């Protein structure tokens, strides 16, 4: 069921599990770096005492405005601001707290973003090829698709979409844009339909749209930058919770957690015996938590979600 605070904007995935794992101090300070519609923040607020402080960040200005409005009912919510992951250590200096008992990253695209044809995230409806999380910054998918070389297009579709037909799709894009600019989601879908047919077509469409969305928003670079930054903002004993939706997101999260939980040996100049740095975090979830069948039935977009949680030592 959609929480009242989400107002149909975006059903918060694994909300009970996030609250159960991240809230260790009911009077503490908590930060949601992907505030979205405010559903996770609302769920945390209900589990916290009145003296707790909650903060939200999102790179989408529409999400910031929406969450700020809906979360006014919760006294613990102090501020929701617009910022990218790569600027987070500077951005949080605007808050009352600069260290947190828990930090959440929900890496999925919100239902509101997907359902808004004007944002260009989905292939199920026609709209401009934008795909920017922040439509006021950077360049959209139209510019990328019409300017990238065939080699660059192949790499984007292969590396960010994990699509086996990347080379054929790239050639088809180049061929079609010679006839005129590719400006809409329907045009991109039609190109994929020309190359791939049969039962794998829908999955390939999803992969291609995912690939360009990741490329446009530099999502993997932003993720790699935010993991150590978020870790640095935790108090000792604070927890970092990350929800990912595909292997390209989950893999760097898993590797970061493992590297900080089991640091590799270090050899100094001329040193024969290695030094083993102490672990900086402990894994709270040895295996990722996934949604229940009940949650997936009520919110099918949750089906691929994986929650990992680690605690700062």
In short:
This protein is an alpha/beta fold and 313 residues long. Helix content is 42%, strand content 14%. The model is unreliable at 1-7 (pLDDT under 50).
Furnish the topology, listing elements before pairings:
Elements: H1 15-22, E1 29-32, H2 39-47, E2 53-58, H3 61-70, E3 77-82, H4 88-91, E4 100-106, H5 111-115, H6 141-147, H7 150-161, H8 166-177, H9 185-195, H10 201-217, H11 219-232, E5 234-244, H12 247-261, E6 281-283, H13 293-298, E7 306-312
Parallel strand pairs: 1-2, 1-4, 2-3, 4-5
Antiparallel strand pairs: 5-7, 6-7
What does this structure look like?
The longest helix has 17 residues, at 201-217. α3 (61-70) links the parallel β2 (53-58) and β3 (77-82). The protein has 313 residues and is α/β, with parallel strands linked by helices. It contains 13 helices and 7 strands. 44% of the residues are buried. The chain starts with 14 loop residues before the first helix and ends with a strand. The protein folds into 2 domains: 15-112 and 220-312, Vaccinia Virus protein VP39 (Rossmann fold, 3-Layer(aba) Sandwich); 118-218, Putative methyltransferase TM0872, insert domain (DNA polymerase, domain 1, Orthogonal Bundle). A 7-stranded mixed beta sheet has the order 3-2-1-4-5-7-6, with helices on both faces. α7 (150-161) crosses α8, α7 (150-161) crosses α10 (201-217) and α11 (219-232) packs parallel to α12 (247-261).
Q: Please work out how many helical segments DSSP would assign.
A: 13
CA radius of gyration: 21 Å
SSE ordering: HEHEHEHEHHHHHHHEHEHE
What is the fourth-level CATH superfamily of the largest domain? Vaccinia Virus protein VP39
**Contiguous uncertain segments of 5+ residues:** 1-7
**How many angstroms does the end-to-end distance come to?**
36 Å
- Total tally of structural domains: 2
**What fold name stands as the CATH topology of the largest domain?**
Rossmann fold
**Main beta-sheet strand count, sense and barrel state:** 7 strands, mixed
Strand order of the largest sheet: 3-2-1-4-5-7-6
Overall CATH architecture of the largest domain:
3-Layer(aba) Sandwich
Q: Report the CATH C-level class of the largest domain.
A: Alpha Beta
Secondary structure: helix percent: 40-55%
Please tell me the overall pLDDT: 92
Shape, principal axes of CA atoms: globular
Strand content: 5-15%
Please state the structural category.
alpha/beta
Number of DSSP E strands = 7
């Amino acid at each position: 069921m959609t929480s009242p605070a989400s107002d149909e904007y975006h059903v918060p995935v694994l909300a009970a599990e996030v609250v159960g794992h991240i809230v260790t101090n009911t009077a503490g300070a908590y930060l949601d770096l992907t505030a979205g519609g405010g559903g996770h923040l609302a769920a945390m607020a209900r589990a916290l005492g009145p003296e707790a402080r909650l903060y939200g960040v999102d790179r989408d200005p529409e999400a910031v405005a929406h969450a700020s409005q809906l979360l006014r009912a919760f006294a613990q919510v102090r501020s929701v601001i617009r910022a990218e992951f790569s600027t987070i250590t500077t951005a949080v200096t605007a808050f009352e707290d600069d260290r947190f008992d828990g930090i959440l990253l929900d890496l999925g695209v919100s239902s509101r973003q997907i359902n808004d044809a004007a944002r260009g995230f989905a292939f199920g409806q026609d709209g401009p090829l934008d795909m920017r999380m922040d439509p006021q910054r950077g360049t959209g998918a139209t510019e990328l698709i019409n300017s990238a070389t065939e080699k660059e297009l192949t790499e984007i579709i292969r590396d960010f979409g994990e699509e086996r037909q990347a080379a054929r799709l790239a050639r088809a894009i180049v061929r079609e844009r010679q006839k005129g600019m590719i400006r809409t989601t329907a045009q991109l879908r039609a190109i994929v339909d020309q190359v791939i047919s049969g039962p794998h077509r829908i999955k390939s469409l999803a992969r291609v749209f995912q690939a360009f969305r990741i490329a446009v928003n530099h999502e993997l670079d932003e993720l790699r930058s935010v993991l150590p930054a978020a870790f640095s903002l935790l108090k000792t004993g604070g927890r970092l919770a990350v929800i990912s939706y595909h292997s390209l997101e989950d893999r760097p999260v898993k590797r970061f957690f493992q590297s900080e939980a089991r640091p590799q040996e270090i050899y100094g100049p001329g040193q024969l015996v290695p030094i083993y740095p102490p672990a900086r975090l402990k894994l709270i979830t040895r295996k990722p938590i996934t949604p229940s069948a009940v949650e997936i039935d009520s919110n099918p977009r949750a089906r691929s979600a994986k929650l990992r949680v680690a605690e700062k030592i």
